[in-house]
Amino acid sequence: MNEADRRKHARIFLTVAVTLQVDGKVIRGTESRNISISGMFVATEVYVEKGSKGTISLSKKCGNDIISFTATFEVVRSGYLKESGGGYGVGLNFLEIDPAYIQNLQKIVAFQSSLAA
Fold first, then answer.
1. Is 78 helix (H, G, I), strand (E, B) or coil?
2. CA dist., res. 90 & res. 96, Å (int)
3. Cα 21 to chain centroid, rounded
4. Looking at residues 96-117, what average pLDDT do you find?
5. What percent of the chain has pLDDT over 70?
6. Which strands make up the sheet holding 18-22, listed edge to edge?
7. Is the model's pLDDT at 110 over the cut of 70?
8. What secondary structure does DSSP assign to 44-101, as a single string?
9. What is the pLDDT of residue 10?
10. For the chain, how long is the longest CA-to-CA vector?
11. Which helix (H) or strand (E) holds 6?
């Protein structure tokens, strides 16, 4: 079984600057690569340990609206990104999302899905 088959939710391509905060420190140079209802993959300039917990925030223009999203997460995968010329990648599993942000996350995923269609 490959990784895509194990996922509960489809990943949607999304490249947008994000703010990661881990252990009270803001990690700069972060950018999302894909997103789903349950998590996201983020490229960073610094290594983040598997098991680390923190907060992620982003804003995305969807049509005429700018939609914001914030959630707590746990790092479930972390490693070096050879294919992108360096840096690190972290797979995030969302732990807690405020109900208002759940709707925003669903809007972002739906908007990105419509662009891929």
1. strand
2. 18
3. 13
4. 88
5. 90
6. 12-13, 31-35, 39-44, 88-96, 65-80, 53-62, 18-22, 25-27
7. yes
8. ESS---TT-EEEEEEEEEETTEEEEEEEEEEEEEEEE-TTTTS-EEEEEEEEE--HHH
9. 79
10. 40
11. helix 3-6
Residue 43, Cβ neighbours under 10 Å: how many?
A: 18
Q: Name the E strands within 2-64.
A: 12-13, 18-22, 25-27, 31-35, 39-44, 53-62
In sequence order, what are the beta bridge partners of 43? 31, 89
User: How far is Cα of residue 44 from the mean position of the Cα atoms in its chain?
Assistant: 11
pLDDT digits (tens, 9 = 90+) for 1-18: 444 445 566 788 889 999
CA-based radius of gyration for the chain: 14
Q: 32 in the Ramachandran plot: left (φ > 0), alpha (ψ -120 to 50) or beta?
A: beta
Instruction: Give the N- to C-terminal CA distance of the chain in Å, as an integer.
Output: 26
Evaluate whether 71 touches 80 at the Cβ level (below 8 Å).
Answer: no
How does pLDDT run across 18-50, given as a tens digit for each residue? 999 998 899 877 899 999 999 999 999 899 999
